Amino acid sequence: MKTHHDHYDVLVAGGGQAGLIAAIVAAEKGARVCVLEGAPRTHRGGNTRHTRNLRPMHLGPLSVLSGTYDEEEYWEDLLRVTKGKTNEKLARMTLRKSTEAVDWLESRGVQFQPPLGGTLHLGRTNAFFMGGGKQLLNVLYRHAEGLGVEIHYDAMVTGIDIEDGAFKGLNVGEHRVTATAFVAAAGGFEANIEWLKEAWGDVAENFLIRGTPYNRGTLLRMMLDAGVQQIGEPDQCHAVAIDGRAPKFDGGICTRVDCVSLGVVVNENAERFYDEGEDFWPKRYAIWGRLVADQPNQVAHVIIDQKAKGGFMPPVFPAVVADTIPELAEKVGIDPVQLEKTITEYNAAAQPGSFDHTELDGLHTEGLAVNKTNWARTIDQPPYSAYSLRPGITFTYLGVEVSEKAQVQMASGKECPNIFAAGEIMAGNVLGQGYLAGIGMTIGNVFGRIAGSEAADYALNR
């Protein structure tokens, strides 16, 4: 790879939403900008390729969004899923600045569509990209190129030079590039199984990686080794229960199984292990990968009956179907006697009430070791269906610490004057654990705009 110039005002590593937005903002301010995308052009954009929405705060109807989603409700949702593991100052700033996200994207050509239904419950909170993440990327790349942003593919950073907290330059193979300001937006390390094993042990060998195979954490590791302050824990991540037939890498969002709250989930011993109806699916789907990871052989099975059909978005793989519970157990490879016992006990514990999947309906079980607190309908209407599950890792939360100006912090306490970060590589500042549907894209959007603006201001005012 050979860049057009040896020196730039702003150099961006990472070509997903956060990096592109940073590049666009910097270029709109008049900076000479170069983007280094580690993946080939066919796989550009990191995990943004697999996204479909972001979650913006809004005080009243906004574009395709209905009603109001104010700061306090948003904050309470975030606090609930993170269990307090978040930087409140940065988190609240993110929520407030998210009010500008949809308009910013629309003014640059991104189109949105009405929200999807079923188990998602996102009509008021999440704005869906028309055409998903690939449409978003295509529009942003086209807009960036129109501004003169130089973009290189297959440009994985192989070395970075940070002296006394300041960025000096980096290498892509043999080629060295320097810049007055640098934006790190190259994602996390979820595709690096060896690094995952450092945190999870050998069970990580059984993880499936929903996102890009190119997020190996190379830049993140180099920055941490150079003395940048770490944020987050290596075993915290966006981990979803996905179809066990999904590919090892890059299966994307269509491999997610969204019917958990409509049925029961059992492990290889045909036993339930967690409350499937704890909360709305967008606030709980990202805990199920971790839950499955804790089960024998990192495998589980979600069981539903005919009543659940049509109430969720089906994954790309068809369900295993049978007319009886024992037959279904045989087909998925678990003990038929134990599964029938589990389902019979669950049905007997289900209390009367009205089912309403648009609300926390309180339809629950009583007397079980693990009760279901909402949507606990009996499973008694054949044919029965099963989806086998494995942990699907989307992105990791270990990253670099940043300020409100997206400036990277050194472990020494020094603030990097010309290094900024956006997207997954710094998302752990807001997401210490758990997940809220769409907030990853919100963080990337907000900090991409901040990082691009601050980097350009630094470069152009030297």
Automatic annotation (TrEMBL):
Pfam families: FAD_binding_2 (PF00890). Its cofactor is FAD. GO terms for molecular function: oxidoreductase activity. It comes from the Bacteria. Keywords: FAD, Flavoprotein, Oxidoreductase. Residues 9-440 form the FAD-dependent oxidoreductase 2 FAD-binding domain. InterPro entries: CobZ, FAD-dep_OxRdtase_2_FAD-bd, FAD-oxidoreductase_2, FAD/NAD-bd_sf, Succ_DH/fumarate_Rdtase_cat_sf. SUPFAM superfamilies: FAD/NAD(P)-binding domain, Succinate dehydrogenase/fumarate reductase flavoprotein, catalytic domain. Transmembrane segments: none annotated. NCBIfam families: CobZ_N-term, PRK08274.1. This is Tricarballylate dehydrogenase. It comes from Thalassospira profundimaris.
